[in-house]
Design goal:
Length: about 425
């Protein structure tokens, strides 16, 4: 068999073609980035698949008014992003990669929460709670009465709860039924148990939250884990998050309109409630709240000393609202009154109610004897979890999150059994 060896000239030609191709590819990537060199790239990280235009230059976004007024003139500070057809492309830059879309949201959520097959059995007199699932045509659209046309909703009619399991006491089962009676004609209602939460957090690639799964190794309270989860769930799928013990009061099936981008009741402190809120998918407040929570946990000097209310809960949610306003050029303390607020990327949030009557729309902590019900369902308060975690260490020993993350990677004797 005769072996043909390429000549030197042939190899040179091949090398020239290869180099020319690579330089042409680099030029194309720079060409895509060139029109937006004046843009604020930090702002491009948020909800890139929601918008249709290239962002204006930083000079146009810097003209935002410094007065924090609840008026539509906030639209002038909007920063819009390119559509998927005009997105920047790069092997290493996440801005060049589209975030996931969900063409069949209810099907995906059904697969997510159906982590138990077959239905598990409840003991100790607890009641098994089923999901209430409707079609996307109902949950994601309104119908125009005059034309009969479908109108896409910004906030889908999805209601999300989380619980350790689907087995609940009669008090909690009655509260779930109250929500089904109030919203069941148009809303899908999902119960996310511990298995579904872990599946959602750990079995997917979070391009926009690359630190998520590592930082979760420092979560030592179930409440903190639920805090992070709720921001991610509404960021990804949209809809309503509700604590298990919150109940409908003035809120009804048609309270949130198709135009609402986010809908927050006020709590008694005068800040948006974190125990119940609604938002459209990819809303910046969800992104900022999740990032604030993860950052607060990531640099804890002692992960057993985790006051969830300050690190991942209302404190992080308040910070998310402040970032939403401030990045659009509006000063904010997080303390607000009823009204429509516009923020970064021309997104908005409707705040309803008053701090003096924080239960006007949603009744908070509607179940009496909640602690005993939680105990019966095998759930613990984060104060109890914190105490148990401290007992694992002797004397004044503390475990910082950074050290815990290092040990998880380097010490085979450190497992997940001490992590929630």
């Amino acid at each position: 068999m005769r072996i043909i060896i390429p000549t030197r000239n042939f190899l040179k030609v091949g090398l020239v073609i290869t180099v020319a191709y690579n330089f042409a590819w680099i030029a194309r990537q720079h060409g895509k980035l060139w029109p937006t060199l004046g843009s604020n790239y930090d702002q491009l990280m948020i909800s890139p698949d929601q918008f249709d235009q290239l962002p204006p230059s930083s000079s146009s976004s810097s003209s935002a008014s410094s007065k924090n007024k609840k008026t539509n003139n906030r639209n002038s500070s909007a920063v819009l992003l390119s559509s998927s057809s005009g997105r920047r492309s790069s092997l290493f830059d996440p801005r060049g990669k589209s975030l996931p879309i969900h063409p069949t949201t209810n099907y995906e959520l059904q697969q997510l929460v159906s982590s138990h097959t077959p239905q598990y059995t409840c003991s100790n007199g607890l009641t098994y709670i089923q999901d209430h699932i409707l079609h996307d045509n109902i949950t994601h659209y309104d119908i125009d009465e005059s034309s009969g046309q479908r109108i896409p909703r910004k906030i889908p009619r999805l209601l999300h709860f989380t619980s350790k399991s689907r087995c609940m006491t009669q008090s909690f089962a009655n509260n779930m039924q109250k929500w089904k009676d109030t919203l069941g004609s148009k809303y899908s209602i999902y119960i996310h148990d511990d298995t579904a939460i872990d599946k959602f957090i750990y079995q997917r690639y979070w391009m926009e939250f690359p630190e998520l799964q590592e930082v979760m190794s420092c979560i030592t309270a179930g409440a903190a884990k639920a805090d992070v989860w709720r921001y991610l769930m509404i960021w990804e799928f949209g809809g309503i998050y509700s604590d298990m013990d919150s109940a409908p009061n003035k809120f009804s099936v048609d309270t949130i309109t198709f135009e609402d981008d986010a809908w927050f009741p006020l709590e008694m402190l005068g800040i948006p409630a974190q125990y119940w809120f609604a938002a459209s998918p990819r809303h910046p407040i969800m992104y900022f709240s999740a990032k604030s929570a993860l950052q607060a946990v990531a640099w804890r000097p002692d992960i057993s000393n985790n006051n969830a209310a300050k690190t991942t809960g209302p404190g992080a949610f308040k910070a998310g609202f402040i970032y939403f306003e401030q990045l659009a050029g509006f000063p904010s303390t997080g303390y607000v009154t009823e009204g429509l607020y516009h923020g970064v990327h021309n997104r908005s949030v409707k705040v309803v109610g008053t701090k003096e009557n924080s239960n006007e729309w949603i009744q908070r902590e509607s179940i009496r004897g909640k602690s005993s019900n939680y105990e019966q369902m095998g759930m613990t308060h984060f104060h109890e979890t914190r105490g148990k975690f401290r007992l694992m260490h002797s004397g004044d020993e503390t475990v910082g999150c950074l050290m815990q993350r290092f040990r998880m990677h380097t010490d085979m004797m450190v497992g997940w059994n001490n992590i929630v």
